[in-house]
Every structure is written in C-alpha cells, then in structure tokens.
Write a structure and sequence with these properties.
The complex is a heterodimer of chains A (about 400) and B (about 80). Chain A is α/β, with parallel strands linked by helices. Helix content of chain A is about 35%, strand content about 20%. The longest helix of chain B has 15 residues. Classes of the chains: A alpha/beta (about 400), B mainly alpha (about 80).
C-alpha cells in the first residue's frame, strides 16, 4: 500500500487568511470570536478569483477556492500540475453547502415569484460546488466529488482522499472542507435546537461551557502518493498515517455518552497507522464546547487511549475560531499538522474550570510537545457529526 | 414597465448587465461575440430575467438560440419591445 504525504496546506479562517496565520495566532492564544460568532472578516473573494468566478460561487465555495489556491501554491504546483490531470482529484467536505444562496433564492421565490429565482441558484447551492470549483479552476480531472457528513465532513473527505490514493485511484488529491453557515436560517436552526452558546463563548471542556459558537472558513490540503511526491522532489510537510471512521447508531444528534463510536474511530485510525496509544503526542479534539460532545469525547479518549489519555495534551481549535461545521475537520487537520511541525500543543483558549470526571490535560496555555526534534511526532484529529458520524485522522510530522 | 425605452437605453441596460455578470466593460461592444466576452447560457438566462423585468416583454429560450453578438441581443430585445 502506498503511503500518503501532505505537500501543501491552505486555510481561510476567522483568524485570517492563510494556514500559517491560523497556526501562529491560535498558538499565541488569539480568539477570533466576536459577538458570539466567528466570521472570516479579512476574506475578500475577489482577492482570490475573478468577479465572474466570485459571482458564480456561494461564499462556502469562495472560501474553498481561496484556501485551495494557497494549498496548491504551497505544494509547489504553481507552474502546473505535477501529474497527469486524470490522476489528480478533489474531495471536499461540507455540512450544508450553499445555504446562503438557498435562503436568498427562497426570498426571491416568496417575494417576487418563481421567475425571479436565479439560474445560478442550483450551481451555487449544490453541496458539491466546492470540489467542482477547484476542479474547474485547476483542471483536476481525477476523482472529483464532495462528502456530506455534518461536522465530520472535513475529516471524512481527507480520509476518503487518502484511501483513494492508497488504492491507486489517484496520485494526488486536493482535499479538505468549506462552510459558510453564518446566515439567518442556519443561525435560527442551530439556536432552535439549543446547540449555540447563549453566552457567545466557546469554552471547550470547561465546566461553564454552554454550546458552540458558529464560524465559517475552509481548509485544504494537498495529499500525494509518497512515491510520487518523493520522485518529483516535493517538500513533504507530513504524513497522513491513518484514518478511522464509525457510526454511533445511537441518536440523531447526541453522541453516545460513553463515547463508544468516537473511541472506535480513534482505535481504527491508530491501527491503520500501525501505531498505538503509546505513540500519540497530541490530540486535536472535536471539542465543540457543548455539554454533550465534550463529556462524551473525554470518555472516548479514555476508552481509546487507556492510561495514556491523561498524559497526552488535548486541545480544541474551536476555542479560537468556533465551530466551522463541515470545514472543521479540514481546518483542524491543517492546524494539527503545523502544530506537530512546530512541536507545540496549541491551547484550549479560556479553559479554566474543571468538571468532575473530565480530568484530561486540556492545555490551558500553549506548550512544547514532549517529542524531540528529529523524532516523528504523531497526533490524532477527531471530528464527530450529527447523525452519529465519527472520523479520526492520524497525522505525523 | 419603462415606457421611455429607446434602442439606446435598451443597449445600455444590456451592456451594463453583461458587465455585472463579469464581462470586461471595454470589451462589451455591439460587435463583440458572446463567446469573445465569455457570456454563456447561464448569463443569457440571467439577462433574459433582467430585460423581462425591465421592459415587460417575454423572451423564449428559442429566441436566443441564434444570437452571436451583443448587437444581435440588443436588436432582438428592441424588436420585442417594439
């Protein structure tokens, strides 16, 4: 089986434009949450595409195209694709696709009538618009599709992409996730089910947590077959060592309280990597700041990692940028990779009060990883979605 | 419905719409082909919505199947508006 390496990363997040911006600011303890939300305030679509392209893309797709351009440049693909275009694919995740477009066109339908609905409505709101746009923009003609699994979609996309490279469906896949859910219906819907933090604070694993803070953004990684990347002399940022995914079959929104499904995803990812709990240096948690997730994820970590669970730093990117839904796993994979490369555990910003039974090391302040330079450091990155979808990536750098 | 529509105002409306859709303003001339200025079928549907709303006319998809240039579109709409 071929190994899968990461040669480029890109991210547009509430902390700013750029993967390294995300890493640097999160590690420095900067939070991008303002008034209970985390928008990508620095993002201007026309910095990344022509006015025509921008007009033909929902904000979720615009974010994906921006992050994708950074990732491809980072991979050294500026001068052209390194392999036959038919062997380069694109697999992106999203939770809800172009919901802003859907809402705008529903307003037109209700207020003016069916003739006022835009001919661009379907191509903008379809959940596969992001992978289609990156394929068009860069001429990617291998496997191109999108993955939908709520808040696990970004990780499912990356894991699926890695599998396709391992099996020879592609030599490289541009993968990740994008989401632009800061719209009236989306806000109202998540608020209605009690998922959004009424205090407007994202405090994963803290006893005072009261829900998630919604954010928007995109993360994109360039995955390549290791043999191909080495043959072209690519600069390799890290390795996607393993992937595991499971279903809870428990409840449409609540995770299993004992974390069985999440634990199995972590165990499968480690087994796929040929590693065990003793090899894990850092966990990038799903850590949403909801009562249910953070408690169940703590239980899952203990199940999967056993005695080592309390020794491993566990932090949540969502403390800095909120919950990016279907983009979360992708942005967090980017953040995890860069943290491993810097040998640092970024913080769970705002974690102060321990809840009984939630006794892991949630990293209240950034600190160096124990693993020394020169040795490979290993991390797990968890994503769990409504519907009982669990996906874990195992990264090494 | 604009009762003061003139061939010139119709041409201006169409050109402004094409620029809004992303065409280069300097390239949008009567003689420019739709292909030259990257106007595709989705743009034409949007343009149809604009002129129907502005001038109260009805255009069918078949009306547009033979248009090649910006001038062809203008002439078609001018003829429909009467």
């Amino acid at each position: 089986m071929r190994d899968v390496v990461i040669t480029g990363v890109g991210a547009i997040t509430p902390l700013g434009v750029g993967a390294r911006t995300l890493h640097t600011r999160w590690t420095a303890g900067v939070s991008a949450i303002r008034d209970g939300e985390a928008p990508c305030a620095d993002f201007d679509a026309t910095d990344h595409m022509t006015p025509k392209q921008a007009r033909r893309a929902d904000r979720a797709t615009q974010l994906a195209v921006g992050a994708g351009a950074e990732a491809l440049a980072d991979a050294g693909w500026c001068a052209g694709l390194p392999y036959d275009a038919g062997l380069i694919g694109c697999v992106l995740g999203t939770g809800i696709g172009g919901i802003g477009t859907l809402e705008d066109n529903h307003d037109q339908l209700r207020d003016t009538g069916p003739d006022a609905v835009s001919p661009l409505a379907v191509p903008l709101m379809m959940s596969n618009a992001g992978s289609a746009a990156l394929s068009l923009e860069h001429g990617l003609r291998g496997p191109v599709f999108s993955v939908v699994s709520a808040c696990a979609a970004g990780s499912h996309a990356i894991g699926t992409a890695a599998r396709m490279i391992e099996h020879g469906d592609a030599d490289a896949i541009v993968t990740g996730g994008a989401e632009a859910p800061l719209t009236p219906l989306s806000r109202a819907a998540f608020e209605s089910m009690g998922a959004i933090s009424p205090s407007g604070v994202s405090r994963p694993f803290d006893a005072r947590r009261d829900g998630f803070v919604m954010g928007e953004g995109a993360g994109v990684l360039v995955l390549e077959a290791g043999d191909c990347a080495r043959a072209r002399g690519a600069s390799i940022l890290g390795t996607l060592r393993g992937y595991g995914c499971t279903g809870d079959a428990h409840h449409i929104t609540a995770p299993h309280a004992e974390g069985h499904g999440g634990a199995r995803a972590m165990t499968l990812a480690l087994a796929n990597a040929g590693l065990g709990p003793q090899d894990v240096d850092y966990v990038n948690a799903h850590g949403t700041s909801t009562q249910l997730n953070d408690r169940a994820e703590t239980a899952a970590l203990k199940l999967a990692l056993g005695e080592r669970a309390s020794e491993i730093p566990v932090s949540s990117t969502k403390s800095a940028i909120g919950h990016l839904l279907g983009a979360a796993g992708a942005v967090e994979a980017v953040a995890t990779l860069l943290a491993l490369r810097d040998r640092v555990a970024p913080p769970t910003i705002g974690w102060e009060e321990r809840e009984e039974g939630m006794d892991l090391d949630y990293v209240p302040a950034a600190r160096p990883l124990a693993r020394r330079d020169g040795e490979a450091a290993v991390a797990l990155s968890n994503s769990f979605g409504f519907g009982g979808h669990n996906a874990t990536l195992c990264l090494q750098a | 419905m604009a009762t003061t529509a003139t061939p010139q105002s119709i041409e201006d409306t169409i050109k402004e719409s094409l620029v809004t859709f992303g065409a280069d303003a300097d390239a949008v001339t009567r003689d420019a082909t739709l292909e030259d200025i990257d106007v595709d079928s989705l743009d034409l549907v949007e343009l149809t919505q604009v002129v129907e709303e502005t001038y109260g006319i009805e255009l069918e998809g078949s009306d547009l199947k033979d248009v090649k240039t910006v001038g062809d579109v203008v002439d078609l709409v001018v003829a429909k508006v009467g």
